[in-house]
Amino acid sequence: MAPFPQSSPWILPTTKPKSSPLSFTGWFVLVAALVGSYHLAEISPGKLLHTQGGSSLWGLLAEFFPPDLSAEFLLYLIVPTVKTIQISIMGTALAILIGLPLGILATSTLTFAGILFEGGSLSRSSRRRLWMLPYLLARGGLSLLRSIPEIVWGLLFVRIVGLGPFAGVLAIGLAYGGMLGKVYAEILEGVKQSPVEAVRAVGARRFPLVVYGLFPQAFPNFVAYSLYRWECAIRSAAILGLVGAGGLGQEIEVSMKMLNYPQALTIILVSFILVTLVDRVSSWIRRTLL
Amino acid sequence: MAPSIEIENLVKVFDGRVAALDSLSLQVEEGEKVALIGPSGAGKTTLFRLLNCILTPTRGTLRLQGCDVTRLSEKSLRELRARIGTIYQQHNLVPQLRVAHNVLAGKLGRLSTARALWNFWDPRPDGDVVRALTQVGIAGKYWERTAALSGGQQQRVAVARALVQNPDILLADEPVSSVDPALAQEIVSLLADLAQEGGKTLVVSLHSVELALAHFPRIVGLRGGKLYFDLPPDQITAELLSGLFTRCEAERGVPERVLRGAVSPVFPLDSPYDKA
Lengths: 290, 276
Description:
heterodimer; A: 290 residues; mainly alpha; MetI-like fold; 13 helices; 74% helix; 0% strand; globular; B: 276 residues; alpha/beta; Rossmann fold; 2 domains; four-stranded antiparallel β-sheet; 11 helices; 10 strands; 22% strand; transmembrane helix (chain A); cell membrane (chain A); Phosphonate ABC transporter, permease protein PhnE (chain A); transmembrane (chain A)
């Protein structure tokens, strides 16, 4: 006789649930994609080491050494280096300026869903649905901004505002604004709702409610992710130089075109040091601030 | 004078499926002190979230100080919320903020947006705040980060926030389940005394039946979203209590969906365990 009554079907499982057939399909697609892409991307490692025609890997690398460490060239690099840092800082600042308001609009828990919209009269639900429009527009805008790579934005803005750092700032600002806004929205949607509910329950107005209950919870993650984006912006600022947006990238391009590889290597080393430094600075800010 | 709380046939259904409250009727007069007891899942927390105007009733009437909550404008609803204070089981403080901000948040219902933002920037304590913090015994922690406090200290901060709010109706949902018995006794007495002095209406849900019987002249038993009894403590018998807390199927961990027959049990009934 069963020791459990019929109405209590909650019995411990004795066998591991079978993995779904979907996972086999998944593996198959993954392997097929790898094999297919290998051929379609015309991958042939031999080409890296060939000796006839063009320059071989080793030959080219040898031409880079030793790096040009003359005082004259290093002094000359100070201005482009500072310019790269400035592009990254202004670009990130612009990205935050674009990302924050759009990110807030793209947060469903702030515009139409969740605990902030519970309570009170039932007839208000239709007005709530009206707020989905700015939400959807913000989501769409953010996707558009970040789906265009910063290098394409850069090419575009060099045409509009001319060669120079400003084009780089705009390119980083728009592309990164799209990424920041999306992540800000995700952070805001992910905060613990119970403290927000408590602040709402004391009768707080909408804006103070967000300032007291929501933002303090999201702030550490906002700072951490914005700093990470700043690190990426330094790399981007260097690359954007290639399309004429000034800074170290432009110097690399000039050196490479003039076949002055030792100078190019020096610039690469400088960017490497720069990225490492920014990494240090941002992790220091994170540690002290959070 | 309208009663503080008037509930008639109140129903709250979540996601159109699970009824947390099932035609509950209850009336609490101004200045009354009521303890709410019942098993977990009885609907106590849902009742509190309806009483502090966070949730909207699905059906039935809920009148607070004579106002029907489903008919209020957003503004009147906010003003009503300012007169209802809540203390939560999980404190519901913002852990990243200082104690100062969490306590001052209690005033937000009465402040203009500008004043609220100024207080956030410069959270200096005023007379109310000092009095509240002294009453709960954590005046020395005012500038500390809330997350750095122990569970008991955080619960005191939550009580201080409600004191600073100075509401007409004070709700406390399991306010002492995360503190040691001595502090639990202390907090419940504090709440009862405060309600007594200020003529406030007090509704407290408690796990501890002894605490409820010792401090409250009226005990409401809630079970399965329904009123199980509503009696003074001297009429609460052991049978009533065991009836209230006897576990039924829904509370033993069987998902609601299985009970309603929406999905079949995952495991066959003739499992190896049955043959043992």
